Amino acid sequence: MVPLLPIPINNCNILQNALVEQRQTNREVLNDLLRRALHPLTCKPYPSSESRYYSVLCADGNFRRWNPVVLALLADCTEYTNLDHLEWHVGSWCECQKTELGDYVHTNKPHSRRDHNLYRTLSDANAKGSNAELLSRDVHRGFNVFQHILSTVNDLPKPHHLHTMQIGMLDHLQKWIFHILKTHERHNKYSAIWLSVPAYHDLIPTKKSYTEVSQWNGKEMGEMSRYWDGVVIQSLRGGSHAQRSIINHAIECPQGLLEFYMYVRYESHNDATLSYMEDAMRRFHNFKNVFILGRAGKKAKAKAKALRRELVKKRKVHKETKADSWTASKKWCEMNAWQDYISHKMDIPKELDADFNFPKIHLISDWAELICRYGALQQYLAERHEQPHNTNPKDGWNASNHNLNYLPQVITFQRHIQCFEIRELNHKALTQH
Ligand SMILES: [Zn+2]
Known about the structure:
By secondary structure, the chain is mostly helical. Helices cover 57% and strands 2% of the residues. The radius of gyration is 27 Å and the shape is globular.
């Protein structure tokens, strides 16, 4: 059902002050649609023991009493938050604060689980205190159909590799590694080693370098994870003594995450594998700060650029006033010192404004607990469900002229295809008679 839900229009053309209102409208549309779709499963306020049962004809010819219960939702984390009526960029299983999402969570100190019964009570109360309470737990006030059907709402989002790990965390890691390789001018070496990985047994390495592809898919990420560690180690070989501690951390951190990824793919677990998973996760968190500059957002980068412009002006003034008294070697030393000073100063706003507080990094911290509850993580094939996304909105978008007026074009494109399909069916029916 989830792939059939409406895809809201792109928010990038909406002004900031109208954005909150638009998101609220999107949420209401989504909720209303879900309410209609799930209406047969909705509990009456005081259901009798019989009210939720249906008589269903089974394959053996007998009728059976059937009681449908929603058990799982498979989606990306932003979709989970929409479906669960939560704010964006929060965890769907626990009440972790937004400012702590990037922190390592010790197994003995997990966050409290989301309690949707409490949220429903608070939402129904609609008092000042209860609204503030909902806000502090990053929950939107209002009706949510999942709170009214027979299911445990906080159990519905199920962990899966594709969105959280393969095109989530591994994709982030790839960007961070490339950032650090570029800083240390190793990116060309990395690309060369990457492309030289030979095929071996069932391993088929990619024929494209990192910069040639804008978006890697889950299958490619899974294949890459098998030789990625070796490529990173070889690319970061050598370097000055001062660089070594950074480089060592830049090797340790991906090793931790890749090791974690290998363990979560096991088809069965015991205490030992869970503790190895925990160790790998701890290693990843211990060394992740080496990639903090790769996490700098647009604002931090703009601040750093403004600072650079200011310092370059200062350098120019300094050079013009002192240049006459400098020898060639002195000039070289001074300019080098300025260069180091500027790059050091530019890192400060990036470091101050960057953090690791994004949902996926926290979601994987909960996986050990979820494995204990539900067993080994399943790999789900999403290709079938992704197909309607390609045929419905994506093909139409590609055929449009990509301007602000693209929506009617996407709809017209789809209508044309359907017209042809209907004509084809009519034609077939006519030829049969
Ligand atoms: Zn958590």
